Amino acid sequence: MKRLLLILFLLCNLNAFAQKTIIYVVEIKEEINAAAAKKLSKGIEDAKKIGADHVILHLKTYGGAVDAADTMRTALLNLSIPTSVFVDNQAISAGALISIACDSIYMRRGGSIGAATVVNQAGEPMPDKYQSFMRAMMRSTAEVNGRDPRIAEAMVDPSVYIPGIIDSSKVLSFTTEEAIKYGYCEGVAESIEEVASTISSGAEYEIKYQRLTLIDRVLLFFLTPFMQGLLLMVIVGGIYFELQSPGIGFPSIAALTAAVLYFSPLYLEGLAENWEIVIFVSGVLLMLAEIFVIPGFGIAGISGIVLMVTGLAFAMIDNNLFYYDGNFNFVVLLKPVSIVLLSAFVSLLSSIFLAGKYLNTKTLPAISLSTVLDVKDGFSSPGKELDYLVGRYALVVTHMRPSGKIDVDGKWFEATMEFGTADKGESVVISRSEGGRLYCEHPAQ
After folding, report:
1. Rg of the chain's alpha carbons, rounded to an integer?
2. Could you read off the pLDDT of 12-56 as tens digits, one per residue?
3. Which of 54, 26, 16, 20 is nearest to 206 (CA)?
């Protein structure tokens, strides 16, 4: 009798021994960029650590960077834990790609999904070679999760014709009801709780939301396109001001600080690699060498600019995305290079304006050298003591490109060529004396 009562007691309280379904929620309600990709990556890691049974992506976005979307798509497809996405009104462009990478899709009434054409900064469609990459990703992602690949392709390409669904003149987007009808949505939901209740099939569940640490928030903040663009402007502007007024100090400190803040989050999050930082530093050194060691503007200067832009742009990109289906993919370079070039252009124009307006005034006394070397204190400046050499012939004793040393009657003087260069052993004419320095030119033939 006691044994029978024990069995009845255990059966009645079986639910007490049943383990709750752990549902982990990651919220992405922003532009799809490197910060969003890293946020999802951290969420997936946390979900694995706590042994979550299901991951829900709470998504609301109008799209963003293709490379970041591909990173998120790949992470979702490779995740062994079942995934669902709750489309909170909009999953447009890159958001559509991320959504169909999930095992199931739930949408709020009045929501929409689709319109995944690759566009430039002005919102204009990019050439077909860029669209083909997106078409392939959408098609293959749909196939993995058992959805119609032609519909996914029609979300990118307006020329795709599907009878009864889309004509050949516009890119496909679905409303919630249309998405359900054509297999791109499992059901309607108005909240995360409704999605969780559906996927748990009536069993008890516990929802755990992603919690980012302060350090995570700071790192993700510096990964946003706005902050990356701002730091790029400070880097370029600082270098420009330092070159205009060598020795000021503050511009170089600002540029160095901005470079550290730019590369550090990218490096810590696994985007920037050592070689990208090295080529950026090499580019800066080549620029400095072109200005201070090899006056003029030639191979070193051009190479320096190319290396700087390359280092800054490649640091934003997950290098694993360069190849898709065995082919090198240029699409992922589009946005980073655009950000770098646009930021550099705006910074250069702003720097030129500010330099002309403030650099030679007393507006910035705190960052400029204000010491006056007065004659009464024993200081003197070069006067006209070298004027007597004007018109004399001199022998070049070191290569002048354009500056070097010349010999006049056994005495060596610092001199600069007015035009071009002069090699050691050549004869030059001293054309003028200014500020204690001699200027030379080749003798008339």
Report:
1. 32
2. 544 444 578 999 999 999 999 888 999 999 999 999 999 999 999
3. 20
What phi, psi does 88 have (nearest 5°)? Answer: -90, 75
C-beta separation of 225 from 240 below 8 A: no
- 288: which 2 tokens? 């400095």
Residue 45 near residue 73, CB atoms below 8 Å: no
Q: Are 90 and 61 in contact (CB under 8 A)?
A: yes
Give me the DSSP letters along 242-276. Answer: HHHSTT--HHHHHHHHHHHHHHHHHHHTTSS-HHH
CB 391 within 8 A of CB 421: no
Q: Alpha helix (H) ranges present in 13-127?
A: 14-17, 34-49, 66-77, 94-100
* Residue 323 phi, psi (nearest 5): -120, 130
Q: Shortest CA distance to 44 belongs to which of 30, 28, 60, 33?
A: 28
Domains observed in the chain: 18-211 (3.90.226.10), 215-366 (no CATH), 376-441 (2.40.50.140)
- When pLDDT is averaged across residues 238-248 and rounded to a whole number, the result is 66
Measured in degrees and rounded to the nearest 5, phi and psi for residue 208 equal -120, 125
What contacts 270, CB < 8 A, 6 or more positions away?
Answer: 318
Question: Residues with Cβ < 8 Å from 74, sequence gap 6 or more?
Answer: none
Q: Mark out the alpha helices in 173-327 (DSSP H runs).
A: 176-181, 192-199, 214-222, 225-244, 250-268, 274-288, 299-314
In this structure, the dihedral spanned by the alpha carbons of residues 15, 18, 19 and 25, taken in order and rounded to 10 degrees, is -50
Strands 54-61 and 21-28: what pairing?
A: parallel
C-alpha to C-alpha distances, 114 to 122, 199, 359, nearest whole angstrom: 19, 24, 51
Going from the C-alpha of 120 to that of each of 127, 137, 183, the distances in angstroms are 10, 18, 30
Do 180 and 187 form a contact (C-beta atoms < 8 A)?
yes
Please name which of 278, 230, 275, 274 lies closest in space to residue 255, comparing C-alpha atoms: 230
Tokens matching residue 335: 């946005």
List pLDDT tens digits, range 152-190. Answer: 999 998 888 898 898 777 889 999 999 999 999 999 999
Instruction: Specify the DSSP element, H or E, that contains 91.
Output: strand 83-92
